[in-house]
């Protein structure tokens, strides 16, 4: 039962369970098991959350908060009279200020003076405990209401404590508290708010099935679900990926005569957008207008974010314009989603216009939007525009954080300007912004790019001196740069250092080491490392770049048959050849064979093999190389690939996309 739950696991939650002996002790004069549970599990957490913990020491009865002189001098204080309203005003005052010691002293003074306690004063204190993150104190006071203060508990005080517990995220405790009170307090019957709170707790715990059961029990308790009930249950269903059930609940809601509100539609639209079903989300928006619900900021923000996830940036920008014309305010997520989406599509210039539009409307951009834009502009080769944006950001008073600094440093390094990037690193440190492994990795990559491997190693050492935790990426950058610079011995040293630290090499580190070994003529060692790479259980499986490195090394050593075996292994592992793979074999067949071959038959056969494995995308890439090299495939091969590309299901998928565009 309940007491056993605070020793370990929670029991299976049940509604209206049979009372047990353990329940009878919960609301006694001694601390209840629920109270003990809160004291054990909640109080330390509360102490961490509250900067200045409220005073909770035992009341000093000898030093009452209301001096008797106040009442003796009442005639001098006008309308101030000694009465219950005075105590109630004090309770309200101390509850708002969070002075729980004085609150307890007021309650004790009222008890001594035999004043009448009313429920609404306790509710004020419950709320104060909730704001102070002290739910266990609210449970304690609820425990004392009847026995100590002779104040009858009703569903109002019960709901107030239940809400305090749920607001602190203690959902299991809320279930326990509900189960106990309903079982033992026969004078308290749950109302709609009670059911709403419990459905919320169950949904937060992922117990949607039990939430539905409780929802179906509401009419038995003569409680009709309201819009909030349906909204909470729909949200729980959507989070369990039960979108169809959530939409069906909307129809049931209207049949039962409960009118949906904007928040109801927002929950469903959010669920559909996360699923990527924008067509149905668009239909729901139309349904909103039919039901007299006006889309709000949440509706627009959700739709815009969904469109950005699907890559429909033009529609997202159009919806943003519509949102602004409706005098609705976008949030950081809205602008961030559009800006990030445009940048990912290589449209950083358009993203800058969105940023300017924000600022013209008096909306200040945050550092994350600037970081995405700066990265995008550098990626598009517009370094001057990126630096100009940096200066504008500083003029706007937006303080750069580690993300913006790192984006700027990475962009300058990619432009071959690591020395300028190093100056910004110094500025970053002076500003109190601590660089991370990504920042240092970008700088190392920049120095390797300009051929200064010694400086890159110095940056790595500086990172160690700054106690910055290096990771797999840092080692990969070092190994790649050293191998490319022909410093195989140094690369092997870094490799060993990486393994000693317990770090797992990624695909870049493996591929770089294999290339370094092959370039040094140690193809056998490279193949051994390749076999080790294939046997790992991590995410460092060989990719097409790894295969190309070895195939190229083998072909240069005239080991063409071995290279073809590796190509067969590549196909068996589900890795498709790319244009580099094709051109390696074209060059080899032309230069290494006697008589030379143009490679047309070889690539044609490769296309057929890929087609047989239903790898149409890979086959199309090989066809593309053949056409660029003026080596047309056989008519039968061409026909197979075209039929594979134009399969009926693929055509249907295109039609579905068109329908999606119409609705969104």
Automatic annotation (TrEMBL):
It holds the Pfam family PPR. It comes from Handroanthus impetiginosus. Keywords: Repeat. NCBIfam families: PPR. It comes from the Eukaryota. Residues 39-64 are annotated as: Disordered. Transmembrane segments: none annotated. The keyword Cytoplasm does not apply. InterPro entries: PPR_rpt, TPR-like_helical_dom_sf. Belongs to the PPR family. P subfamily. Coiled coil: none annotated. The keyword Repeat applies. This is Pentacotripeptide-repeat region of PRORP domain-containing protein. PPR repeats lie at residues 191-225, 226-260, 261-295, 296-330, 331-365, 366-400, 401-435, 436-470, 471-505, 506-536, 543-577.
